[in-house]
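ok trying this again, last paste got cut off
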Amino acid sequence: MKKLLTGGLSVVWLLGGSIESSAISIRPVSHACPSEVEPLTALMLRDLPGYANRVIVRSRTRYPAISSLDSIITAGRPEFVPLPLTSGTFSTIPDPQNASDLRQVFITTLERQNVAGTAIELQQFHWLFLTKTESGWRLALMFTRTGVTSVGPPITPPRESSQGVIGQAVRTWLRDCNAGAVRS
């Protein structure tokens, strides 16, 4: 009896001159995306550096001259206590009267940049607004502040960062999670 893998899609058994085939799954059994924000965030933080680093590699391919970010080292420190939202706090935050389904999540990433041959580590403080829709979780909005790895306050004011590396990584991860492609 011999077992052959053909094209990564099926297993072929040779039994005394006859061929039998059985399909195998390339993707593991689908896992449901968590319905609560805390377990969702725990899974996302586990995978976020890999997703973000893939965003960085793709951006280097498209825009080699502007990509200074080398890598995302880690993501962690989730906090779930929401800040009170009042009209006029930030002009781009959805109206608090209509934002009852928004979940605020605060996370930190440690990133490494190579500046003039010297590796610099930066902490990024991210304020995510996640919402649960009929089709799953979505990133509604995100703000980021940059700090240094030594103790001290962040060095930049909050900036809208939904289209940045981490924002793109979060959206891609949520898409995969909603599709059941993230292992728990």
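PB: full thing came through this time. The beta strands are 2-6, 10-15, 18-23, 69-79, 102-115, 118-133, 136-148, 159-160.
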